[in-house]
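ARCHIVE CARD
CATEGORY: sequence design from structure
SOURCE FIELD: tokenized fold
FIELD CONTENT:
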């Protein structure tokens, strides 16, 4: 079963946002036993959307379209799909009632244009809305074969929620194939050779297994261990992948920072919250990336008290009034000062020199960090990172977060 993905939105073509929906859907299509035949992004143009559907219909049995179902004049997907199917639009009373309820909760009248979200191509089956706009599925005959088109809102949580509920089960029923699931271990502070050595016994046993594959993917700030398993359905494939993932995680121990889509910074924030600790940050070389990493996620505001971004350690010292008895500006003094300034349980300081920084006293790529915690516990480390400015910054953040994770554990 071949499935094509079509994403609608001018913002995707301009590069303003990444197409996270297509990435997510492609991964989930594989799990259903289907094959992703094509991924295509198209702008908010009715004729262009129709041409995209024509092109995809020649290459796929199912097309999943996302975006362009909102209430504004540039939301043209429902009209284009109706044209493609050769039918008109029909207004549905139950969707009008849903929109009325949505706008009543907002304490606003329904804009006339918003009622277009209740219009669905004649003959289509409605995918009940999770937000304001409903999705739908329509079947049509192409020369020699049928084509099914699932249409979803573009808002990621609506797109994924409706897909999980309505689209993916439909693909599983229609595929009758072999499902494939990939699970990922994220490893920081270790190289591929060390990971390969630790997992050698496991990889040797898997070499003769036809239903599971283990691979490494090195990134600037971590190494991903990817376990891909196949099975008669997504549940069986996931169970097999999970068994191997757990065996690999046991061998790698504390080097594993997170699993699947969970990020290292999310784990650190959760550890801080679980221990009832707040944190404050001062950073130079990373230009705010560390504070940004700790500020993402729904519970970040519960643990991050604040941060200071400075050009260099001297500027940070001036702002925080941090000095040691010998008149220097070590990272431990900065960590202690930022902890006191923001009234946090933990102070974290990260300083260094990125390529291009004017700092003759240190080699570019030199970074140092310190953690001052409850009870005045202190930890300091320094290292050298090879790479350009972006690599030095991203690896610095990863190393510091991994160091903080170890201290919290």
């Amino acid at each position: 079963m071949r499935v094509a993905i079509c994403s609608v939105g001018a913002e995707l073509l301009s590069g303003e946002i990444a197409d996270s929906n297509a990435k997510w859907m492609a991964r989930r299509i594989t799990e259903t036993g289907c094959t992703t035949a094509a991924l295509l992004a198209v702008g908010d143009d009715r004729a262009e959307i129709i041409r995209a559907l024509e092109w995809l219909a020649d290459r796929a049995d199912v097309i999943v379209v996302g975006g362009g179902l909102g209430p504004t004049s540039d939301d043209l997907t429902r009209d284009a799909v109706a044209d493609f199917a050769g039918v008109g639009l029909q207004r549905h009373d139950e969707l009008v009632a849903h929109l009325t309820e949505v706008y009543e909760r907002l304490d606003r009248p329904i804009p006339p244009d918003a009622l277009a979200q209740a219009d669905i191509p004649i003959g289509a089956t409605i995918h009940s809305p999770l937000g304001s706009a409903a999705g739908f599925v329509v079947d049509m005959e192409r020369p020699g074969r049928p084509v099914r088109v699932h249409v979803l809102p573009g808002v990621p949580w609506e797109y994924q929620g409706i897909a999980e509920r309505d689209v993916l089960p439909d693909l599983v029923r229609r595929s009758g194939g072999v499902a494939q699931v990939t699970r990922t271990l994220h490893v920081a502070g270790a190289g591929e050779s060390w990971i390969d050595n630790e997992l050698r016994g496991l990889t040797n046993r898997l070499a003769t297994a036809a239903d599971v594959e283990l691979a490494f993917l090195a990134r600037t700030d971590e190494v991903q261990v990817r376990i891909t398993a196949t099975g008669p359905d997504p549940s069986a494939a996931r169970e097999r992948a999970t068994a191997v993932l757990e065996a690999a995680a046991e061998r790698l121990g504390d080097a594993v920072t997170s699993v699947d889509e969970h990020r290292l910074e999310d784990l650190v924030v959760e550890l801080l919250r679980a221990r009832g600790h707040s944190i404050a940050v001062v950073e130079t070389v990373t230009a705010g990336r560390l504070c940004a990493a700790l500020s993402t996620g729904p519970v970040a505001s519960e643990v991050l008290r604040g941060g200071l971004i400075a050009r260099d350690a001297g500027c940070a010292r001036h702002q925080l009034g941090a000095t040691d008895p010998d008149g220097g500006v070590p990272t431990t003094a900065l960590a202690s000062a930022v902890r006191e300034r923001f009234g946090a349980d933990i102070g974290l300081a990260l300083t260094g020199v990125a390529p291009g920084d004017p700092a003759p006293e240190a080699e570019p790529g030199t970074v140092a960090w310190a953690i001052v915690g409850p009870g005045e516990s202190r930890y300091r480390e320094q290292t050298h990172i090879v790479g350009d400015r972006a690599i030095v910054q991203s690896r610095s953040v990863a190393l510091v977060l991994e160091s903080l994770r170890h201290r919290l554990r």
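CARD ANNOTATION: The two ends are 46 Å apart (CA to CA). The chain has 14 helices and 17 strands.
SHELF: design records, drawer C
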